[in-house]
Write a structure and sequence with these properties.
The protein has helices spanning 10-19, 58-76, 93-105, 114-120, 140-153, 246-249, 251-257, 304-324; strands at residues 2-6, 26-30, 43-44, 81-82, 86-89, 110-112, 129-132, 136-138, 157-159, 174-177, 194-205, 213-216, 218-222, 228-232, 267-279, 286-291, 294-298, 327-329, 338-340. It is globular and about 60 Å long. It has one domain (2-324): FAD/NAD(P)-binding domain, CATH 3.50.50. The chain has 341 residues and is α/β, with parallel strands linked by helices. Bound molecules: flavin-adenine dinucleotide. Flavin-adenine dinucleotide is lined by residues 6-12, 30-37, 39-44, 162-163, 178-182, 199-201, 232-233, 274, 276, 298, 300-306.
Length: 341
């Protein structure tokens, strides 16, 4: 069977990869480039959000993501992620209370007092922090490149063109729609309970590379280039254009300087912007059948890295459920052959 995936961000590439694990599937990706995934600041850990509450199914999400990260890294033959942990600095009284509570109730969240923070990061503002040893920093653009390469090696085809409607792809047996913020432009999706939030990030030159990602109100993450860091990110619910807007983006420097003062002198090399799509209520992403042979997988919000792998596999299982019944599948490792029953 031949399946079309519309959109080659985290959601689309994860779906594509999981499709290609089935020997009876051929897959074509339709993509026009851009999207939120290439702008992501690369934070992958179980405690996102203001209160650092553990996200649902975060351990499964993290483990599934690690498998894809390693797959992409192997395909690209370049480092794609760092596993040194993530530090959430508690600079406000509310953060101190929330983060400390998390450390008491969850063994994956470790409380560091001010002295411990300063011993590792002498230039930070005096504050305690929540250390998340399982935290990973992903080099987003490289990751997408590596994951696509891995898919390509498994036989995925790419069509660099915009799809306007599901009916453009009638020749396919099934469609998985992973068009990120453009999902709402498809007739079948326009009433889904999803909202858009623009995010901007700065690529800056820094004099000294930090050993891990620093997160508080805003964040500073290392990139694949030791001389550059990424500072993120804005959450703009009202915006007139998805494009970079320096007047808003440059505020990020002030914001992160509150917990890492050297940042106010960082040289900005580039401003990036993207649009997140998230459920109007809560944060659980959406997988839904929108047509007899089409499914949408979207709403990853700011947890794209945490959920893309786990849910990419789930959407593929949903899509293939009905088809698997019609095929006798011989595992690829034995013959690679497939017969229709
Ligand atoms: C500034 C910023 C920082 C972020 N930081 C993090 C972070 O640290 N950690 C984290 O987990 N998440 C982060 N996120 C969120 C994360 O980036 C998203 O959750 C994730 O990228 C969503 O992936 P997606 O595949 O659903 O959408 P997208 O990445 O937007 O991909 C959609 C793709 O579909 C294609 N497309 C769209 N319409 C069509 C069409 N009609 N035809 C063909 N192709 C089409 C686009 O070209 C694009 O490639 C951040 C987001 C932003 C904006």
């Amino acid at each position: 069977m031949h399946i079309a995936v519309i959109g080659g961000g985290l959601a689309g590439l994860s779906a594509l990869w999981h499709l290609l694990q089935h020997s009876f599937v051929q897959a074509t990706l339709f993509d026009i480039g851009g999207g939120a995934s290439s702008v992501s600041t690369g934070l992958l850990h179980p405690f996102p959000g203001k209160e650092a509450l553990r996200s649902l199914r975060s351990e499964e999400g993290l483990q599934a993501a690690k498998i894809l990260l390693k797959t992409a890294q192997e395909a690209l033959q370049k480092p794609i992620f760092e596993e040194g942990g993530i530090l959430r600095l508690a600079v406000t009284e509310i953060q101190k209370k929330d983060f400390h509570l998390r450390s008491v109730e969850d063994p994956d969240a470790i409380w560091w007092d001010e002295a411990k923070v300063l011993s590792l990061l002498p230039q930070t503002t005096l504050a305690p922090a929540l250390f998340v040893p399982k935290g990973i920093t992903v080099y987003s653009k490289r990751y997408l490149e590596g994951l696509w390469l891995a898919c390509q090696k498994k036989g995925a085809k790419l069509e660099k063109r915009e799809v306007y409607s599901l009916s453009d792809l009638k020749e396919f047996d099934a469609i998985i729609l992973t068009a990120g913020s453009s999902t709402l432009r498809f007739e079948e999706c326009k009433n889904l309970p999803l909202a858009l939030t623009k995010g901007q990030a700065l690529i800056c030159r820094w004099p000294e590379r930090l050993p891990l990602s620093l997160v508080s109100q805003g964040h500073i993450t290392p990139t694949e280039d030791p001389h550059l860091c990424q500072i993120g990110s804005t959450y703009e619910r009202k915006f007139s254009s998805p494009d970079p807007d320096p007047s808003k983006a440059l505020e990020l420097l002030q914001k992160v300087s509150l917990f890492y003062p050297p940042a106010k002198d960082f040289k900005v090399e580039e401003i990036r912007s993207g649009v997140r799509i998230a459920p109007k209520i809560g944060y659980q992403p959406l997988i839904q059948k929108i047509h007899p042979n089409a499914w949408v997988f979207t709403g990853l919000g700011s947890r794209g890295l945490l959920y893309h792998a786990l849910l990419g596999k789930k959407v593929v299982n949903e899509v293939l459920k009905k088809w698997k019944k019609n095929y006798h599948v011989i595992p690829r490792t034995i013959t690679g052959e497939v017969w229709r029953s």
